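Researcher: Please predict.
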Amino acid sequence: MADKLSSTDRRRARVRRALRAAANGRLRLSVHRSSKQIYAQIIDDAQGRTLAHASTLEKDVRETIKTGADIEAAKIVGKLIAERAVAAGVKEVVFDRGAFIYHGRVRALAEAARESGLSF
């Protein structure tokens, strides 16, 4: 008998399934948000590699923010991931919000990444 998935796992799987259909070979900007931090990665699913990453746990980011759990921190991480992606030669990605609603910190990270040069 198959294990029952939680609503979060079902939502995450649904979002990933839609992304695979719409990606057309583009890389994935994956976002994870916890209660205290926010993380972002540029992932190449074809090769199974992470090309760039940024989070509020990095030393230079921690020194500039008050907490990793607010919109200002998400904007900094969004700008940082976009700069690192452009430096790695990535301009177009598909946005993977995972099981998180596109609102608040997730939205702030996405908008900051767009403003800093990523296209999605």
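Model: The longest helix spans residues 7-23.
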